Please model this.
Amino acid sequence: MYGEEEMERVEKEIKECRHCELCKTRNNPVVGEGSLSAKVMFVGEAPGYYEDLKGRPFVGKAGKVLDELLESVGLQRNEVYITNVLKCRPPGNRNPATAEIKACTPYLDAQLEIIKPEVIATLGNFSLSYIFDKFGLKKDKISKMHGKVFDVSTIASIKKIIPLYHPAVATYNPGMKEVLVEDFKMLFFTLAINTNTNQQQIIFL
Ligand code: URA
Model:
């Protein structure tokens, strides 16, 4: 499968990484998981307690919400790719520090290069902020941007970016689940439209 060797190399680098202090307190780094040919990549903030214990992304309470949201649009974990801005847990689940984001995001950049997702779904503010800055997009409040589709053209491809609330919001504010469900519908339609476009291109070729 394309990208396997490259992802293995990134995984090895993350496991051996000592670029910030988080390597001293982590139990396991969380590289990410899913399909290397995924059309959509979800980018969360950082591993939490359970993710750090298991070495897998989104396996705690927020992960349960994410699984339900994926299921609501007929997607399975093994069809998408899920990762985070930070690969190691900040102690006590504190916010990522600027220096940690700077040290860690070359790994996320490498994952984006390998997978080349058509759609990037940011989960929460830190992910939104990093991805929007990376692609030179203007940011606004998540309350204004969530569920909207932003186009970016890179030399290699055209991508769509969809900012989403972090699934954890639904664990302390159940009313937010409905907002996330609606935004996932937008994500699903965006993926469907992109797939149709590709099919048309294949037919014309
Ligand atoms: N929150 C995140 O942002 N990422 C995880 O992997 C788990 C919880």
